[in-house]
Amino acid sequence: MQTLSRLAAALAATLSLSAAAAEAADPVKIGIVMSYSGWFQPIDASTINGAMLAIKEINAQGGVLGSQIEVEKFDNKSEPPLGADGALDVINKGAKLILFPSDFDFGAPGAFVAQQNNVISFSGASDPKFGVKGIGPYAYSISTASQAQGAMLAEWAYEQKGWKTAYVLLDNTIAYTKSLCGSFSQRWKELAGDAALLGEDTFLNGDPSIAAQVSRISGLATKPDVVMFCSYAPGGPSAMRQLRAAGLDQPIMTGESLDGDYWAGTVPGLSNFYAVNFGSFYGDDSDPDVKDFFTRYEKEYGQRSDASYSLRGYSMIQAWARAAEKAGSFDADKVAAALDTFKEEPLVVGPTTFTPDLHIQTTRPMTIVQSQDGKFSFVDKISAKTVHLD
């Protein structure tokens, strides 16, 4: 009788272990709700590729908590409201994580739905509102706040380059460019004084001409040492071409919205151009992990990444997978709690810190790349000393 009991117990234990193994082997689903078509597609494309590379490499190493990652895709067609539809679609298919476009205006509609359904969301949005205060505790940005980007450019220009006067030219179309230039202006005045900002002007991305703005800069009695330029393609490169055609050859600085060189052909021989981004994909970044990532990316896709955004895509998956492993669960509350313990977590995009109150980076170093005679290269890694998020 005792022997039969022991056999029954052993059999029950075996069945239990088998059931647990089977459960652990079930795939875990994530959603990618991004722009697979439309005008925003080039911005999301390398982010998606970076995420897919991370998924492939993590799955090859056994997955997350023993589960292979499966992807449910949804094309928002570059229409922000469709993000909410996409979020519902992938949630209904079992998604435990959703990646959204790298802009608050594009990503927020879907992220609100994810928040309401207790699903973790990640974006490369540079607006701190993509987080606790703007969406909720399940929303995270892997990016560096636009306010930090503007501040670090002001500090680099004034302290490292020795430029003493500046002019701000703002593409007044999206939230990112507004906060980028706003932060630069605030920090520049703190460093150089109010009088050192020689002027501020605006245009819209769809404007075919910025002749009036060019005339105002050309008419200044003292020309600026540097132009802080906040825009994105296609309107940004068109505006820069007009600046150069008017003989305004001052250094131009910009944020990560003009990352990459896919647009550079529209400004032939571009020189004295500096952009902050997440890492140089020209094979010359000072961080060996970044160089190695871009080597793997090129091997995977047969071409060089056309923007550093692929680092963000990879790191979104990397961050979520590490948090799930740490939590021992895919439960959103447990994963969020684990993410909120990240302190200088060494992700491929750089050291990453989250707290229960802030789900975006402010002090992580970023890369400065330059274009001289149309050739892009690494210049420096910088971080902001003083950042005003409000």
Task: Explain the overall architecture.
This protein has 390 residues and is of the alpha/beta class. The chain has two domains: 22-144 and 287-359, Response regulator (Rossmann fold, 3-Layer(aba) Sandwich), CATH 3.40.50; 147-277 and 367-382, Rossmann fold (3-Layer(aba) Sandwich). The protein has helices at 2-25, 41-60, 82-92, 104-116, 146-160, 175-192, 211-218, 235-245, 288-301, 309-327, 332-339, and strands spanning 28-34, 69-75, 95-99, 120-123, 139-141, 166-171, 197-203, 226-230, 252-254, 273-277, 345-347, 350-352, 366-372, 375-382. The strands form three sheets. The protein has a seven-stranded mixed beta sheet. A five-stranded parallel beta sheet has the order 2-1-3-4-5, with helices on both faces. α5 packs parallel to α6. The radius of gyration is 23 Å and the shape is elongated. It starts with a helix and ends in an 8-residue tail after the last strand.
